[in-house]
Automatic annotation (TrEMBL):
One Pfam family named in its UniProt record: FTHFS
GO BP field: tetrahydrofolate interconversion
Signal sequence residues: none
Keyword list, A-Z: ATP-binding, Ligase, Nucleotide-binding, One-carbon metabolism
Enzyme Commission number(s) from the entry: 6.3.4.3
Pathway noted in the entry: One-carbon metabolism; tetrahydrofolate interconversion
Uppermost EC category: ligase
Organism per entry: Caenorhabditis briggsae
Protein's UniProt name: formate--tetrahydrofolate ligase
Superkingdom per UniProt: Eukaryota
Amino acid sequence: MSTWNVEYLKPTLLQPVPSDIAISRAQPPKDIEKVAAEIGIHPDELDLYGRKKAKVSLDILDRLTEVRNGKYVVVAGITPTPLGEGKSTTTIGLVQALGAHLHKNVFACVRQPSQGPTFGIKGGAAGGGYSQVIPMEEFNLHLTGDIHAITAANNLLAAAIDARMFHESTQATEALFNRLAPKNKQGKGVRPLSEIQLRRLDRLGIPRVTDAEHLSEEQRVSFARLNIDPATITWNRVMDTNDRFLRKIEIGLGPNEKGHTRTTQFDITVASELMAILALTTSLADMQKRIARIVIGSDKTGNPVTADDIGVTDALTVLMRDTVRPNLMQTLEGTPVFVHAGPFANIAHGQSSILADKVALKLVGQDGFVITEAGFGADIGMEKFFNIKCRYSGLQPSAVVLVATVRALKMHGGGPAVVAGAPLKHEYLDENIPLVEGGCDSNLRKQIDNANKFGIPVVVCVNKFATDTDKELELVCSKAKSYGAFDAVVSEHWSQGGAGAVALAKSLVKATEGPAKEFKFLYDLELSLEEKIATIAKEIYGADGIELSAEAKEKLERYTRQGFSKLPICMAKTHLSLSSDPTKKGAPTGFTLPIRDVRASVGAGFIYPLVGEMTTMPGLNTRPCFYDITIDPVTEIIDGLF
């Protein structure tokens, strides 16, 4: 694979650094057809959504099947403050440095942001400063409609669940069977079954028939009645808006539902298992199989009920057909970006898609780089990247870039609490070597150690802020290398773009030279679910062990009995501490990790233990971002997005 001939963009760097949207608007992007042509995507492999974004065909994987993959790098971070430490910005800055300044073939693969935070408290999520994805408005709003497709598919399944329970509860078995398998009007009263209904016969151990009329009375009952236990239903409706009043609702209150009410809730769309499935699928056929395996609850005898049992597998796949194709955009300096999938980083794995990574790795070629990001700190996002995403993709990671900030290290070294929306205390604005040292000796050391457990090199990126002093930055770099990092580099990509990350890029190139390192998983899938959970708690978090609630024990036994014990683990834990207590900073020891509950995302392919309460539907604060978002009705220019 030859080096791309890319026309790199050269944004004008201003001081002080303007707002993100002002920077984005000041740099006209290339037409996406030009970006695609520069990196070897053929016109018939591109579906345009306007002039600045497009979907890319998976046929590229077949065309480039003989091309060796490029280097595969994950950007993770130390345990963050509530303000975040700049992983997305580092991802984009590093890619700009590798491409526009070192002239490497390079792709960024990032998650699509939810509309909820965009209009809520956080604002946009395209990176920041002079290291961001453009156009920012396109990135943060509808993009190509993937999230809307997931919303539609998710809610079709939710509607089908309640409709099925309603019809089973209001009809005799004979009437129910006659409606599920109606006689063919074209012929001799034959009752043909669809393929998805025949698959239900397979799961029930009933031989397939060409005419359901031949089923016995007992077989008809088994076929027609799912007997879903409402108390076990885990499938919720979703929408891509922060709405606290949908966290607990009662449905079925209309007179035509005949008193069949139940309590349920809405989640935000990116919390849907369908989003996690999109991120972990390897093809449309694989997505179809994963959707079929979704477990929505149990029947009244304790057996799992799946989306295939409900009968909606293929319908959901149809709604999500286009979502499997990655979305192509560009950085501020004209390097390519795939924006694809955006699962939660707590109840799911928090990564962009396997498919985007695979296509990008072929396009960059053997000497190129694909840089992707892991949500939250390395103890959560990086661990899931290795143990879940790399397991399902079969891809070999080449290196970890671990992002740290002096601000976060001061917090871990004993500094005062950092509160979103409140002014930083003087400890964070003035030089304070003891606090920095304390944070290095605790959290930074532990997260480097966590990364090294997987056998690949770690490059620490110290994301520089204006208040950091040379002494503080030198101390972090020195400490990081002494703890086992391959290298540690100060980076200024937020204020300088790719030029500010050249040293980081050169260090990464050096770290990935030579034979590939021996990557290894943290645990074997053959271990019991409890053993796998305990391994993560002890090895990654530093806990002495785990404590299972009665409910968690019952769920582990149920999932083992149902045949799900070989799945990997996706811990749902606070991202603000290595422990279960977000107030405990540094690297806590001498604690036991409490497992409150355990749930299964069988379609996505993981079991997720709950450590504490997890909110899957954010709420709006007193003054959400939408107060500042506006549009000029003449020019259609949007303002106020972050």
